[in-house]
Amino acid sequence: MTNKKRSHQAEVLIEGMAEKLNRQIVGSLVACVHCGNCTRSCHYVLTNPDDPTFAPAYKADRIRKIFKRHFDWTGRVFPWWVGAKSIFTVEELEELKDIVFGKCTNCRRCSINCPMGVDYATFNRMMRGLLVSVGIMPEGVAVVSKDQWEIGNQMGVLPEDYIDTIEWMSEEMQSELDDPTAVIPIDKMDADIVYTINPREVKYDPRTISDAGKIFHLAGENWTMPSEGWDMTNFGLFSGDDALGGAVAGRVYEKAKELRAKKIVISECGHGYRSTRCEGPNWAGMDVEIPMESSVITMLRYVREGRIKVDKTRNTKSYTFHDSCNNARSCGLFEEPRELLNLVVTDFREMYPNRSENYCCTGGGGAMSMSEYTPLRLKSAKIKADQLRETGAEVVVTSCHNCVDGLTDLIKHYKLGMEVTQLVNMESEVNKGSGFNVSIPRRSIALSSNDFK
Amino acid sequence: MSEALHFAEHRLQETALLIMAGVYAVRLIWLMRFKAGKERQAPTGLPGTTKGKGIIYSWANIFMPWSMESARKHVLMWFQFGIFHMGVTAAIALSVIIPYAPEVLEITLITTIFQVVIVAAFIVGIMRIIRRISIPVLRAISSPDDYFSLILLTVWFFFAAFSVPNRWQEGETFLLTYFWLTAFFLVYVPFSKISHYLYYPFTRYYLGKTMGFRGVFPLRGTRRG
Question: Cα–Cα distance between A111 and A125 in angstroms, integer?
Fold first, then answer.
């Protein structure tokens, strides 16, 4: 028995673990047979093959050791024999932080490749939450979480800036469509759709808001954007903080309910879709009656129903599609974006692997906000860069803002010369009724008002 | 048959089985005491994907090497896995057949099949030991229990293979060792990684339930061409 003194933070973390453990997590913690099959599924391992510490089973064992030592009898009785080990110092907690935040994007690729069904990503997220609860987290996670708690969105967009941007985009829409009725309604009661977005759209990519607005307008949709509870992203997913996750998702649900909206449409964002559509009700402990869907599904429906017309001949470049991990591996959203993309491009090239087996953009799991891990992230992005290069496509399309940033970063780093765009931008551009003649999707970068003229 | 062998085949096995069953029951009760997570949201994914289909797919996908990339890309490993587990099944069955239905082993074809399967599993066991020692990643993730369990099973296969003919008249050493090892194995299993087969139905059930509900299972992807 060691006489090492346990820090208060380690004590709290272990106590917190007892509360967080559920049957699914315990099953995943006890079932690993160390077969190593997960190893070859992880992009960190594939790009760092000589370093065994990147193996999912190795990373999982850093958490499993603590579990075994405190909650599993084999580890309590024979700790050395089964590799059980407690945690004591702040330094050890910091090391754990670097593993759960810096060496895993919670992409769940190892989970679907584990013969035992061990869902490492789920308990990796649990450990993130436990570390956050004792104040140990990457700086970026702390800053973004604080913004989302205090200001209500993860990029600290102030209410007046949000409204200003929406009004600005509304004016742009009117001018581009030359239609005074083409406005973005705010807080309209009894709308069929309440459209929720990623604050990144407000801050860096407002064109996606007006593009979506044009599509809704041209489809004749009875829609609105909420003045509050508009951020469908949720840093609780990345930080593992269920309380934050519940609070953020709850704001979206409550506002939609207050507006008596019939449906919540979630703009193209992998983690936002997963958080709002799939995890939010669980975190918030709410049974949400309002249906929710991804804007990809909404747009596809408009095209299928003939409410908007598209002309794919306007997009003559070659395109490939990147599946967001959260969309594909956690919410089963992978066929609809392909169907929609094939309606708006003439040259679509599948990347391999794809759908549920696709590689992470390598910026997932909040990695884009953790600058201390950027060199490792970019090094580990080589597998994704090779995958993109192999398609020979000029443009990579994705339905996730986070992936846009992750892919843009790695494309620049590996000098792939590809463009990155989202379906909403493309669909707006090929929409016959939009009056647009633009056939080349613009990269999702920070845009000034001049970019729209 | 000596008293020692009779004891090893019957009373020892029964006692070991009882201990294993008892420990397993405690283990399952322990697992079930943890609250199961609940999915409140509406299902996602393509029409036709359900919790039920996800669970069945999840349980079955170990038998579908094409369904998981980790198996599809390493088919040889998958076959090794299959042979190893068939060997385990055969060696366990042997511990019941010898004491309770020895006449089955008088059929040459059956003894041959048993021996081929168990010897193949023994060879895979050796390969697995070498693999676990020689591959840095596997070394890094292995605990003493991982090595011991693998060595225990491989040695057990060795003695099981020689016990298949059940010719105790020609000497009892292999049979005695096999049955004592089986008894030790039964008692040790619940405390080791070998108990994974107890958890397998649960972990795969919950993963399948979640992934089926969310339309991820059955897996889709990587359809080249």
Answer: 13
| Closest residue in chain A to residue B44, using alpha carbons only | A331
Which of 116-135 (B) contact A at CB < 8 A? 135
**CATH topology for the A309-446 domain:** Rossmann fold (3.40.50)
Q: Which residue of A52, A57, A332 is in closest CB contact with B216?
A: A332
Tell me if A286 and B224 make a contact (CB, 8 A cut-off).
no
Phi, psi (rounded to 5 degrees) for B194: -65, -20
Q: What is the mean pLDDT of residues B142-160?
A: 97
Task: Report pLDDT digits (tens) over A229-274.
Answer: 999 999 999 999 999 999 999 999 999 999 999 999 999 999 999 9
CB contacts of B220 in chain A (<8 Å) are 334-335, 355-356
DSSP 3-state percent helix, strand, coil across chain B (nearest 5): 75, 0, 25
B199: Cα within 13 Å, side-chain hemisphere: 28
Q: Domains in chain B: how many in total? A: 1
What's the CA gap between A389 and A411, in Å, rounded?
A: 9
Edge-to-edge strands, sheet with A292-294: A223-224, A193-196, A264-266, A292-294
The whole-number pLDDT of residue B95 equals: 97
ipTM of the complex: 0.93
- Determine contact: B202 vs chain A, CB below 8 A: yes
Give the CATH number of domain A147-300; options: 3.30.1240, 3.30.1380, 2.60.40, 3.40.50: 3.40.50
pLDDT tens digits along B101-111: 999 999 999 99
